[in-house]
């Protein structure tokens, strides 16, 4: 692995992220809309039997959504790089394909984690009282989940050559991943078939881990669905698996 | 010493053979031109040499390294300017170069200096902090050449470097490229379908339908066409034609009110011809062969056409007229 190459791939993405303020703005706007408009609307329908309002319940899910969209968006930029030729500059360099993939996944991780941290900073407004340990734990979960989702995004990006495919990815992969992640409703309340779908979705485990850390209850309909240790194992395992698949796919397709 | 060595290279895509048994060598420190029409197999060959594509069969070596088995070594030894821009338009000129320097593991203490040096070399130092999207086509190309040079490559590939540039930028770029081997101790491997641009090359290979059909210096190739062409307009073309054929044993043809003939040394032939049929002559012009003529002679088509038409000679003459 070439650390110089990984560093510069991350630095490029970060520089562009800082420069494009509109990208940051819209990335922050989406979760805010869901949290304060969809959340506020639905909280009137949902009884809060565990002392947690619906808006509070979806908070981990909205952090997950922030990660999902910005990680996939960051990885999909590979398709832009292919379209505008910049990918060739990277591919022809004396750098292993694995370094390129790790660099890209870390880019997505950093950009997504920053955005998630900005949303996380809203916790006092939502009536949470989080300790510094909880905050650090949530940010760490965000970082690992971002890495896993970014690596998944890179695998997707290797299959597509032009950015027309962007809406296909958005509608048929990203939106279902969001709705079947336990973000908006507990996985345990879903019909059986959808529960299976949710369980093969890596985002589910990231959001569930955040529920463990943010909520103080372990029972009831709004409680976490999966043991924390399994959440952690799945996030780390999928990160490794997706990076390796992406590395292989890159080698083959160039 | 040969820095590039290609042996019996073949690349087949599902139904077409893009590169068909190509072999050549390139001397270190020279400019080697790969000429041919669009779709002749130039870019495919470059992609194989640059390790972006595996050949169906055959071998390729750069600086002694196998392009297939030692791709990492080959990549370190080469710089590339692709046909299409491969810059990040949302970064500045300098950031694009720094990115490249990191990818190629240029030592950190030398990086800043090297990036400034290549920027000065391509005359873009004053624009170093501007975003690339503000650059003109010519500036982008120069920046790409600069980028290709950062890691001191031994071979610099230029794939159609002047494509889409205006005539002035093209001329500037060629002057600049012609100086590269001496100033930077680098070998240039370039492709173009503009024949006249290949004049800067030390050696040229002409490729058509995936095969090399001629190779040599520009002078050698032009000689192979058979020398200069003399065009004469006379008051009586028929009798002038007869007289010249009788006295000089030239094969004289007539086209659009002119008679023309090919001879080895046009500048000495003209006075002799004028001496014999002088009173009939209205105008004389001499046409030296160009690489375009070489291509025409070898393939029966001009290089800009994808397929040869039935009106080759008419196009040939028209092309001559346009240029003079």
- Determine the structural class of chain A based on helices, strands and strand pairing: mainly alpha
CATH H-level superfamily title of the largest domain in chain B:
P-loop containing nucleotide triphosphate hydrolases
Question: Quick one: how many beta strands of chain B?
Answer: 14
List low-confidence stretches of chain A. Answer: none
Between the first and last Cα atoms of chain B, what is the distance in angstroms? 40 Å
Mean of residue pLDDT values of chain B: 85
Strand content of chain A: under 5%
Going across the biggest sheet of chain B, name each strand in turn: 6-7-8-3-9-10
Label the overall shape of chain B.
Answer: elongated
Helix content of chain B: 25-40%
The biggest beta sheet of chain B reads: 6 strands, mixed
Please give the CATH architecture of the largest domain in chain B. Answer: 3-Layer(aba) Sandwich
Strand residue content of chain B: 25-35%
Give structural notes.
The complex is a heterodimer of chains A (254) and B (324). Helices cover 74% and strands 0% of the residues of chain A. The longest helix of chain A is centred in the middle third of the chain and has 28 residues, at 132-159. With 254 residues, chain A is mainly alpha-helical. Chain A has one domain (3-253). In chain A, helix 1 packs parallel to helix 6 and helix 2 packs antiparallel against helix 4 (59-83). With 324 residues, chain B is an alpha/beta fold. Chain B folds into two domains: 2-217, Rossmann fold (3-Layer(aba) Sandwich); 222-323, Alpha-Beta Plaits. Helix content of chain B is 38%, strand content 26%. Chain B is built from eleven helices and 14 strands. Chain B has helices at residues 42-49, 71-77, 93-103, 108-121, 137-149, 167-184, 218-224, 237-248, 266-277, 291-299, 312-323; strands at 2-12, 17-27, 31-35, 57-62, 65-66, 78-81, 155-159, 187-192, 203-208, 211-216, 228-234, 253-255, 258-263, 281-287. A six-stranded mixed β-sheet of chain B has the order 6-7-8-3-9-10, sandwiched between helices. In chain B, strands 2-1-4-5 form a four-stranded antiparallel β-sheet, with helices on one face. Chain B has a four-stranded antiparallel β-sheet with strand order 12-13-11-14, with helices on one face. In chain B, strand 4 and strand 5 (65-66) form a beta hairpin. The longest helix of chain B has 18 residues, at 167-184. The two termini of chain B are 40 Å apart. The relative contact order of chain B is 0.13. The model of chain B is unreliable at 305-312 (pLDDT under 50).
């Amino acid at each position: 692995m070439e650390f110089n190459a990984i560093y510069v791939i991350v630095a490029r993405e970060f520089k562009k992220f800082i420069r494009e303020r509109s990208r940051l703005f819209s990335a922050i706007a989406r979760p805010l809309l869901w949290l304060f408009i969809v959340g506020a609307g639905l909280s009137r329908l949902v009884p809060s039997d565990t002392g947690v309002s619906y808006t509070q319940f979806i908070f981990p899910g909205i952090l997950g959504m922030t990660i999902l969209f910005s990680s996939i968006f960051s990885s999909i930029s590979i398709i832009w790089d292919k379209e505008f030729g910049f990918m060739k500059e990277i591919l022809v360099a004396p750098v292993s394909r694995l370094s390129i993939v790790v660099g890209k996944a870390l880019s997505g991780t950093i950009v997504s984690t920053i955005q998630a941290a900005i949303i996380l900073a809203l916790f006092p407004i939502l009536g949470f009282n989080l300790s510094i340990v909880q905050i650090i734990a949530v940010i760490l979960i965000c970082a690992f989940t971002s890495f896993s989702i970014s690596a998944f995004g890179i695998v997707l990006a290797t299959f597509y050559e032009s950015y027309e495919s962007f809406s296909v990815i958005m509608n048929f992969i990203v939106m279902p991943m969001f709705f079947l992640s336990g973000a908006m409703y507990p996985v345990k309340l879903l019909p059986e078939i959808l529960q299976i779908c949710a369980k093969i979705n890596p985002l589910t485990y990231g959001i569930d881990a955040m529920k463990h850390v943010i909520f103080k209850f372990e029972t009831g309909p709004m409680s976490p669905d999966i043991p924390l240790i399994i959440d952690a194992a799945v996030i780390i395992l999928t990160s490794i698996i997706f990076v390796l698949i992406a590395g292989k796919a890159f080698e083959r397709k160039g | 010493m040969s820095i590039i060595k290609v042996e019996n290279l073949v690349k087949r895509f599902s139904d077409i053979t893009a590169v068909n048994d190509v072999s050549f060598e390139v001397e270190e420190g020279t400019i080697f031109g790969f000429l041919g029409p669009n779709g002749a197999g130039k870019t495919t060959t470059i992609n194989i040499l640059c390790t972006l594509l595996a050949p169906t069969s055959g071998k390729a070596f750069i600086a002694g390294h196998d392009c297939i088995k030692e791709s990492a070594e080959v990549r370190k030894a080469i710089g590339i300017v692709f046909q299409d821009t491969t810059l990040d338009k949302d970064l500045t000129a300098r950031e694009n170069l720094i990115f490249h320097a990191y990818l190629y593991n240029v030592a950190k203490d030398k990086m800043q200096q090297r990036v400034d040096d290549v920027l000065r070399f391509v005359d873009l130092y004053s624009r170093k902090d501007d975003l690339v999207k503000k650059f003109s086509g010519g500036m982008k190309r120069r920046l790409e050449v600069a980028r290709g040079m950062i890691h001191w490559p031994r071979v610099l590939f230029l794939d159609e470097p002047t494509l889409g540039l205006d005539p002035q930028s093209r001329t500037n770029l060629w002057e600049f490229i012609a100086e590269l081997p001496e100033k930077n101790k680098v070998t240039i491997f370039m492709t173009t379908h503009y024949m006249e641009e290949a004049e800067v090359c030390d050696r040229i290979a002409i490729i058509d339908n995936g095969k090399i059909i001629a190779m040599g210096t520009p002078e050698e190739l032009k000689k192979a066409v058979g020398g200069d062409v003399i065009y004469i307009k006379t008051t009586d073309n028929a009798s002038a034609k007869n007289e010249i054929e009788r006295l000089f044993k030239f094969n004289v043809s007539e086209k659009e009110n002119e008679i023309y003939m090919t001879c080895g040394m046009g500048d000495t032939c003209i006075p002799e011809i004028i001496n014999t049929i002088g009173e009939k002559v209205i105008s004389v012009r001499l046409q030296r062969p160009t690489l375009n003529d070489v291509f025409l002679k070898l393939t029966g088509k001009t290089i800009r056409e994808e397929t040869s038409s039935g009106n080759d000679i008419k196009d040939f003459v028209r092309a001559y007229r346009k240029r003079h």
